[in-house]
Write a structure and sequence with these properties.
about 325 residues, Rossmann fold, Dihydrodipicolinate Reductase, domain 2, about 20% strand, binds NADPH dihydro-nicotinamide-adenine-dinucleotide phosphate, arginine biosynthesis, N-acetyl-gamma-glutamyl-phosphate reductase, amino-acid biosynthesis
C-alpha cells in the first residue's frame, strides 16, 4: 500500500498533538513533520502543505484560512479543524453520521471542515427528528452543557493547570453569540440556531450536552419514546454514534462527561417524565475525540479510502 503523506499544520497544539498521536503508529501513513523552530514559518508551511496528500489544519481560524491559500496544487486535500470553513461554500461538513450519504460526500471531497465540538451533540440529537418531520424546523430550542477545559485550547489548559483553585463549573456564552451558532443552524435543519449556553468544568477532557424539549408546546403529540425510537433506528449499525436504552431514572451514574475520553464515540440518551411530554436528549462524548481529533481521523480514513474505523477502535 502506498503511504499517504499527511501534514498536520498546528501539530504542537491540543488537537494537533492528539491527531499526531493517533496517526503515529500507522504504517499506511507518512507524517510530514515541521522543524519546531519553523512551525510558524510561512514558506516552510507552504512547502509541507503542498507536499502532503492530506493537510490537517489544527490552527486558529485566520491561520487556517492562510494555510488553505498557501496550497497551490490541485492534489492536496484539506481537513480543517477550525471554525473557518464549516458553513463555507465548497466545503463538506465532516460529521459522517449526520445524514445518509454524508460519509460518501466526505470520501469524495478535497475540502472537509471538521465539526465543532458543541454542534456535534446537538446535530446528532436533533437533525433526525427535524428530517423526519417529528420536530418542526421552527421549534425554538435551547442547548447547554459542560466541556472539559481542553476545549479552550492551549491557553485555557495552561490557565486551569496553573490556577490555585479553579471554579469547578463556569458558565459562559452569556451573551448568546457563540461562534458555533451558524453551523448549529445550518446542519440541524432548524430555521433558528438554539439559545446556546455552554459551561466549562475543572476537568481536562470530555463533554456532556443537553437539549431540553417541552414537547407539549414545541411538538404537541410527539412523545419522548417516539424520539428515542427514531434516534435508535437512525443510528442502528453505526460504530461511533450509539443510542442508549430509554430509562426512567432520577439519576444515572454513567453520565460522567469523562466516560468516553480517548474514544471516538458519541452516546445519545433520552430521558422523560412519566407522560413523555417533557424530554431531555443528552449527548456524551470526548471534545478531543469525536469532538475533534477522532472525527478528523475518521474523515481522513474516508478520504484515503480506508475503513472508517482504522486506528479508532480500542486495541
Ligand atoms: N480543543 C478542542 O476541543 C477543539 C478545537 N478545535 C479547533 O481546532 C483548532 C485548534 O485548536 P486547539 O488545538 O484547541 O488550539 P491550540 O491553541 O491548543 O493549538 C493551536 C496551535 O496552532 C499554533 N499556531 C497558531 N498560529 C499559527 C500559525 N500562524 N502557523 C502555525 N501554527 C500556528 C499554535 O501555536 P502557539 O500556541 O504558539 O500560538 C498552537 O500550537 C482551533 O481552530 C479550534 O477551534 C475544534 C474542535 C475541538
Ligand atoms: C471549553 C471551550 O472554551 N470550548 C470552546 C469550543 C472548542 C471548539 O470546539 O472549538 P471549535 O470547534 O470551534 O474549533 C468554545 O466554546 O469556544
Amino acid at each position: 500500500m502506498t503511504r499517504a503523506k499527511i501534514y498536520i499544520d498546528g501539530e504542537a497544539g491540543t488537537t494537533g498533538l492528539q491527531i499526531r498521536d493517533r496517526l503515529a503508529a500507522r504504517d499506511d501513513i507518512e507524517l510530514l513533520a515541521i522543524d519546531p523552530a519553523k512551525r510558524k514559518d510561512m514558506d516552510e508551511r507552504r512547502r509541507l502543505l503542498n507536499a502532503a496528500d492530506v493537510a490537517i489544519l489544527c490552527l486558529p481560524d485566520d491561520a487556517a484560512r492562510e494555510s488553505v491559500n498557501l496550497i497551490d496544487n490541485d492534489r492536496t486535500a484539506v481537513i480543517d479543524a477550525s471554525t473557518a470553513h464549516r458553513v463555507a461554500p465548497g466545503w463538506t461538513y465532516g460529521f459522517a453520521e449526520m445524514a445518509r450519504g454524508q460519509a460518501e460526500a466526505i470520501a469524495g471531497s478535497k475540502r472537509v471542515a471538521n465539526p465543532g465540538c458543541w454542534p456535534q451533540g446537538l446535530i446528532a440529537a436533533i437533525r433526525p427528528l427535524v428530517e423526519a418531520g417529528l420536530l418542526p424546523a421552527g421549534a425554538p430550542l435551547s442547548y447547554n452543557g459542560v466541556s472539559g477545559y481542553s476545549g479552550g485550547g492551549r491557553k485555557m489548559v495552561e490557565d486551569y493547570v496553573s490556577a490555585a483553585d479553579p471554579a469547578p463549573f463556569l458558565p459562559y456564552g452569556l451573551t448568546f453569540k457563540h461562534k458555533h451558532l451558524p453551523e448549529m443552524a445550518a446542519y440541524t435543519g432548524l430555521t433558528h440556531a438554539p439559545q446556546f449556553q455552554p459551561s466549562v468544568g475543572n476537568f481536562a477532557q470530555g463533554m456532556l450536552t443537553f437539549v431540553p424539549l417541552r414537547l407539549w408546546a414545541q411538538a404537541p403529540g410527539l412523545k419522548a419514546k417516539a424520539i428515542h425510537e427514531m434516534l435508535a433506528e437512525r443510528y442502528a449499525g453505526e460504530t461511533f454514534v450509539k443510542v442508549m436504552p430509554f430509562e426512567a431514572t432520577e439519576r444515572l451514574a454513567g453520565l460522567d462527561p469523562r466516560a468516553l475520553n480517548d474514544t471516538n464515540e458519541l452516546r445519545l440518551y433520552v430521558f422523560a417524565d412519566a407522560a413523555g411530554d417533557e424530554a431531555l436528549i443528552v449527548s456524551l462524548y470526548d471534545n478531543l475525540g469525536k469532538g475533534a481529533s477522532g472525527a478528523a481521523v475518521q474523515n481522513l480514513n474516508l478520504m484515503l479510502g480506508r475503513p472508517a474505523t482504522t486506528g479508532l477502535l480500542p486495541a
